[in-house]
């Protein structure tokens, strides 16, 4: 009986430990890079050893990531779950707002501004501040935590786009003639007249580059730290009003009216990629945070998902889209007309299906949709103002204060600005595959030059083949023995010519080498060791 009591006392900790190990194993499987390599079938010992070390490294990294997720990322995202025959996309915002807490319910709002629209918007990297721009010149900055209006002004000319720069203190607006840069107090700091009549703006945070595309199809890159123009290229595909940045590799994607998508970097005058995505004009595009997935929409009522590793279509859907946007957790927002749909990858194979839908007042025209970072919120800029809806599961629930801190103080912001300037990346680091940075370029194998005996034997064999080559029988008068002999000599000379040229080239290189050695011998001994460096 005592033994049974002891076993009862001991068993609960064992069960708890087993459950913890099972939970850790399930998290490790999420971070593993597929199934391991079959090492038993390999005959090459060196390759088998290299793969064994690599698999061990992958296992350790997956275990470390699983432990970090368990202890450092306690919060988990939550999605809408339907019961029975219920569909999640039938659940309305009113029902969601009634079930969430008071602070979350305040994040859903409608701001009616009928006279100055349509509106576009942009968020800072930490999701705390929102910049708003109306087509008729209305600019504003809003603190989304306290819902306070920081600054509001009227520039009295057309504004096509707006974007924050490295933080909320400075933003750029694409106005009628050229972009202008303002601070949060509404003071105009710079006017970028070289950019022309800009249609879209994007800021590359890690490189401090402001990218713009104007109505003539010219792509500009300007360094915001030094103020110099880094690049100015003509796309050659006409007017372009669709522009997005792949945050994974900082490559700028442009959608053109001919149905093509081009990808650019500031150090190349030609596009890195040019692909025909649609038979009609591109109306919207978006890049997944992972960097390997792209969504495009065309005027022929097709929305396509592309795998950027193979540049192939994964799935094609029917529908129009004026604006596309991926969230931090991979949800896709599709805005068109007076309705917005949110798609979700249910199975993990990039096969998106409808997750939520939101209909606005009939007659509203969606201009732009944007997810708020680290919050389950989607903001919509439309022809009659601004709207914000709750989208459960769209935002990253755990933030890294070293990357983006929604609650940062003024001192933390200043320190982050200094660190980001010190960590600024040069434009040359922008490429399609950023993982190749830091790798050593493989050495080109030099062709083994044949020895003198081998080249002579090869020449003799070519001469013998030329001598034994049959000659064509010509007409009477053109088949004389002298002419036949002359043709044989011409064939032998033609065969010998490359070998003789190679011999002449080797002799010239030998003479240059001897001359250089003689010149080096005339120098003092103290300077001879510097001669190879001076050349």
Automatic annotation (TrEMBL):
InterPro entries reported in the protein's UniProt record: BING4_C_dom, WD40/YVTN_repeat-like_dom_sf, WD40_repeat_dom_sf, WD40_rpt, WDR46/Utp7
GO biological process: maturation of SSU-rRNA from tricistronic rRNA transcript (SSU-rRNA, 5.8S rRNA, LSU-rRNA)
Protein name: BING4 C-terminal domain-containing protein
UniProt subcellular location: Nucleus, Nucleolus
Keywords associated with the record: Nucleus, Repeat, rRNA processing, WD repeat
SUPFAM superfamilies: WD40 repeat-like (SSF50978)
Compositionally biased tracts (Basic and acidic residues): 414-426, 441-456
Ranges of Basic residues composition bias in the record: 473-487, 526-535
Gene3D superfamilies with a match to the protein in the record: YVTN repeat-like/Quinoprotein amine dehydrogenase
Region listing for Disordered, in residue ranges: 414-535
BING4 C-terminal domain: residues covered: 354-434
This protein's GO CC annotations: 90S preribosome; small-subunit processome
Biased composition range(s): Low complexity: 458-469
WD repeat residue numbers: 275-316
Organism name: Stephania cephalantha
């Amino acid at each position: 009986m005592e033994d049974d009591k002891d076993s009862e006392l001991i068993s609960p900790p064992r069960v708890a430990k087993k459950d913890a190990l099972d939970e850790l194993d399930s998290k490790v499987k999420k971070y593993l890079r597929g199934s391991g390599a079959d090492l038993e079938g390999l005959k090459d010992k060196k390759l088998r050893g290299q793969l064994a070390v690599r698999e061990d490294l992958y296992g350790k990294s997956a275990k470390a990531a699983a432990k970090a997720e368990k202890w450092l990322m306690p919060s988990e995202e939550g999605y809408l779950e339907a019961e029975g025959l219920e569909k999640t996309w039938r659940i309305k915002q009113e029902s969601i707002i009634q079930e969430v807490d008071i602070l979350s319910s305040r994040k859903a709002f409608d701001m009616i501004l009928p006279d100055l629209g349509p509106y576009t918007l942009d968020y800072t990297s930490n999701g705390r501040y929102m910049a708003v721009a109306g087509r008729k010149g209305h600019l504003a900055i809003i603190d989304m935590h306290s819902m306070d209006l920081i600054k509001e002004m009227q520039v009295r000319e057309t504004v096509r786009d707006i974007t924050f720069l490295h933080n909320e203190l400075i933003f750029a607006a694409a106005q009628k003639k050229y972009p202008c840069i303002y601070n949060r107090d509404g003071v105009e700091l710079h006017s970028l007249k070289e950019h022309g009549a800009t249609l879209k703006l994007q800021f590359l945070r890690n490189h401090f580059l402001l990218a713009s595309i104007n109505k003539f199809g010219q792509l500009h890159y300007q360094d915001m730290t030094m103020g110099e123009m880094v690049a100015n290229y003509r796309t050659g595909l006409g007017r372009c009003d669709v522009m997005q940045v792949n945050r994974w590799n900082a490559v700028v994607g442009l959608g053109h009216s001919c149905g093509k998508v081009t990808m650019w970097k500031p150090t190349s005058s030609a596009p890195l990629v040019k692909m025909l995505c649609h038979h009609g004009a591109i109306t919207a595009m978006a890049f997944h945070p992972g960097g390997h997935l792209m969504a495009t929409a065309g005027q022929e009522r097709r929305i396509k998902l592309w795998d950027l590793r193979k540049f192939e279509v994964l799935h094609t859907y029917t529908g129009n889209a004026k604006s596309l946007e991926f969230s931090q957790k991979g949800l896709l927002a599709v805005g068109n007309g007076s309705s917005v749909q949110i798609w979700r990858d249910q199975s993990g194979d990039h096969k998106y299906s409808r997750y939520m839908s939101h209909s606005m007042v009939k007659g509203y025209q969606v201009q732009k949709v944007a997810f708020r970072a680290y919050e389950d919120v989607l903001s919509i800029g439309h022809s009659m103002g601004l709207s914000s809806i709750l989208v459960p599961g769209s935002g990253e629930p755990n933030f890294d204060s070293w990357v983006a801190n929604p609650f940062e103080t003024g001192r933390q912001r200043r320190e982050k600005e200094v660190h980001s300037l010190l960590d600024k990346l040069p434009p040359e680091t922008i490429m399609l595959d950023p993982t190749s940075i830091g790798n050593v370029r493989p050495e080109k194998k030099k062709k083994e030059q044949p020895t003198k005996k081998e080249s002579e034997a090869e020449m003799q064999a070519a001469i013998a083949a030329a001598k034994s080559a049959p000659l064509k029988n010509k007409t009477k008068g053109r088949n004389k023995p002298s002419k036949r002999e002359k043709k044989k000599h011409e064939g032998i000379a033609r065969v010998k010519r490359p070998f003789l040229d190679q011999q002449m080239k080797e002799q010239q290189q030998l003479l240059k080498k001897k001359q250089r050695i003689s010149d080096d011998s005339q120098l003092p001994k103290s300077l001879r060791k510097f001669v190879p460096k001076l050349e």
